[in-house]
Amino acid sequence: MNSKSAGDTTDGRERYTLLAIVLHWVFAFLVIGMLFLGYYMVDLPKGTPNRAFYFNLHKSFGVLAGVLILLRLYWRLTHPVALLSTGIQRWTDKAAWWNHRLLYLCMVLQPATGYLSSSFNKYGVKFFGVALPSWGWENAQLRDLFMNFHHLISILLVALIVIHVLAAFKHLLLDKDQVLQRMLPWSEK
């Protein structure tokens, strides 16, 4: 269980701060949108007129996600989590602990492997049209290696998100506790 510390930004309440809530939901929509866009664009045949547009859009949002996850991770490490009520079962608390850490790991590795994969191809990375520095050189084997990691991490990320969402609904519908409400911006508690 979490205990209140001197620097707790929750003011002793069981809900997250507004900034933590905003960061959570903005990043949730960004990651889910990136996953849908990523799976959509890879099925576009080469030579399709909009293929380059979608790839560049995905890369731009990927760079944005990479920067935002570093900011979110910094915020998370420097601001204690909201207090958890004492009624939560220990196994549930431990499962949430692992799920959150694996989510953060995937959210750091996903943009990094995407950037590396693009750094080893001739197109590189453009952030909404602005070319960014390449971390490599044109090399098909390294590009494919990092792209395979990028793809595998996306599968793990989808699984972790599904577990995260199912756990939130478990708390809401079965446990009928206030765990989900702690992360809702319109909730009182």
From TrEMBL:
Keyword Cell membrane part of the UniProt annotation? yes
Record field: transmembrane: 16-41, 53-75, 152-173
Family of this protein: Belongs to the cytochrome b561 family.
Give the membrane topology, semicolon-separated if more than one: Multi-pass membrane protein
SUPFAM superfamilies in alphabetical order: Transmembrane di-heme cytochromes
Instruction: Please give the Gene Ontology molecular function terms for this protein.
Output: electron transfer activity; heme binding; metal ion binding
Q: Where is the protein localized?
A: Cell membrane
What Pfam families does the entry give? Answer: Ni_hydr_CYTB (PF01292)
Q: Name one GO cellular component term.
A: plasma membrane
Kindly give the InterPro entries that the UniProt entry links to this protein: Cyt_b561_bac/Ni-Hgenase, Cytochrome_b561_oxidase, Di-haem_cyt_TM
Q: Which residues form a coiled coil?
A: none
Give the UniProt keywords, A-Z.
Answer: Cell membrane, Electron transport, Heme, Iron, Membrane, Metal-binding, Transmembrane, Transmembrane helix, Transport
Task: Give the Cytochrome b561 bacterial/Ni-hydrogenase domain ranges.
Answer: 15-185
What does the entry give for GO biological process? respiratory electron transport chain
Protein's UniProt name = Cytochrome b561 bacterial/Ni-hydrogenase domain-containing protein
